[in-house]
């Protein structure tokens, strides 16, 4: 009897590993459903919204200005952040708050991106911790699936003035 | 055990296809296409399954890596082959003195191989030995300070600053080629770079 039980256990473990690996690769290379929390992307993404993220753009280096991305937090490697890409490498970025008298610019270094939340008053982003390396980006959010009242593709940035004009 | 399980899975896939496209499938029965299509689906199924398992093994357990460049001499020479494990990264067990592989902060398509000199909160010497005054800085939260063992010929955190922990991909702990240098890796030859409190 023991042999039968052992055989079944191995088969079960084998199936679990196989399908676990396939599911993991699907999430990592194709995309998945994500629940966002926090106020930093309002009004585009509210707290507890459920969105769909795709991971293909990251691997093909197709992230563009205006995309909303999920990235590993540079200050806490265990958590993720969800912000909009304001500048790519080489772009000129406004780094001062609107209340400053003089505008100050800086350039995004090679291999980095500048992220900002849509809710500028309540967002800890690159204005606080600087540009983050492109390697931290995990995926791109492009579609909201919950709440149903807001179902569909995501809006453009409400802060169009943050994008630098050359 | 894997082969019989995969065969059962592949046969299940074939059954589902048969139920969904009943009539179309029946017409194919009359042609030779069925045999070829069946074999193709099975092959694709196997490839996806074992590709995913291999990828997860490399990502979560470890793999063999070939290093290039002079920045880690004499510990790791150009074209050495080493063994890297990825468990420490996931369990946040990277320590001072570990040699890590990380995504380059200046080029996301390439990897770098350096030694961890400081973890978050550590005090780091940021000046070159020729400076008269020592200057220190602290490693920010969630970052690490990397330096190559070959200080004269290494582009590392002294150039691009501390890198986020999230860029680290694995830890190198064993060299397997050349055989004259087979074995666990030596400690840093630059012990003085580790700050003394």
UniProtKB/TrEMBL annotation, chain A:
GO terms for cellular component: mitochondrial inner membrane peptidase complex. The keyword Protease applies. One of its GO terms (molecular function) is serine-type endopeptidase activity. Its EC number is 3.4.21.-. Residues 18-94, 102-146 form the Peptidase S26 domain. The active site is at residues 40, 83. InterPro entries: LexA/Signal_pep-like_sf (IPR036286), Mito_IMP1_subunit (IPR052064), Pept_S26A_signal_pept_1 (IPR000223), Peptidase_S26 (IPR019533). The keyword Transcription regulation does not apply. Belongs to the peptidase S26 family. IMP1 subfamily. Catalyzes the removal of transit peptides required for the targeting of proteins from the mitochondrial matrix, across the inner membrane, into the inter-membrane space. Known to process the nuclear encoded protein DIABLO. This is Mitochondrial inner membrane protease subunit.
UniProtKB/TrEMBL annotation, chain B:
Pfam families: Peptidase_S26. Its EC number is 3.4.21.-. Keywords: Hydrolase, Membrane, Mitochondrion, Mitochondrion inner membrane, Protease. One of its GO terms (molecular function) is serine-type endopeptidase activity. Signal peptide: none annotated. One of its GO terms (cellular component) is mitochondrial inner membrane peptidase complex. The active site is at residues 71, 114. It is found in: Mitochondrion inner membrane. SUPFAM superfamilies: LexA/Signal peptidase. The keyword Hydrolase applies. It is an enzyme of class 3 (hydrolase). InterPro entries: LexA/Signal_pep-like_sf, Mito_IMP1_subunit, Pept_S26A_signal_pept_1, Peptidase_S26. Residues 49-125, 133-177 form the Peptidase S26 domain. GO terms for biological process: protein processing involved in protein targeting to mitochondrion; signal peptide processing. Belongs to the peptidase S26 family. IMP1 subfamily. Heterodimer of 2 subunits, IMMPL1 and IMMPL2. Catalyzes the removal of transit peptides required for the targeting of proteins from the mitochondrial matrix, across the inner membrane, into the inter-membrane space. Known to process the nuclear encoded protein DIABLO. This is Mitochondrial inner membrane protease subunit. It comes from Enhydra lutris kenyoni (northern sea otter).
């Amino acid at each position: 009897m023991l042999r039968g039980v052992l055989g079944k256990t191995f088969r079960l473990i084998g199936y679990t590993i196989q399908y676990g690996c396939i599911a993991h690769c699907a999430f990592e290379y194709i995309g998945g459903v994500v629940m966002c929390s926090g106020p930093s992307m309002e009004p585009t993404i509210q707290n507890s919204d459920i969105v769909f993220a795709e991971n293909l753009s990251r691997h093909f280096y197709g992230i563009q200005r205006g995309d909303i991305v999920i990235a590993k937090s540079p200050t806490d490697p265990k958590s993720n952040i969800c912000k909009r890409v304001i500048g790519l490498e080489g772009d000129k970025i406004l780094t001062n708050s609107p209340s400053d008298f003089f505008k100050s610019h800086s350039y995004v270094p090679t291999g980095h991106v500048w992220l900002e939340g849509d809710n500028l008053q309540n967002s800890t982003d690159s204005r606080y911790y600087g540009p983050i390396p492109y390697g931290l980006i995990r995926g791109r959010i492009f579609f909201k699936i919950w709440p149903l009242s807001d179902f569909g593709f995501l809006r453009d940035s409400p802060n169009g003035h943050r994008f630098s004009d050359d």
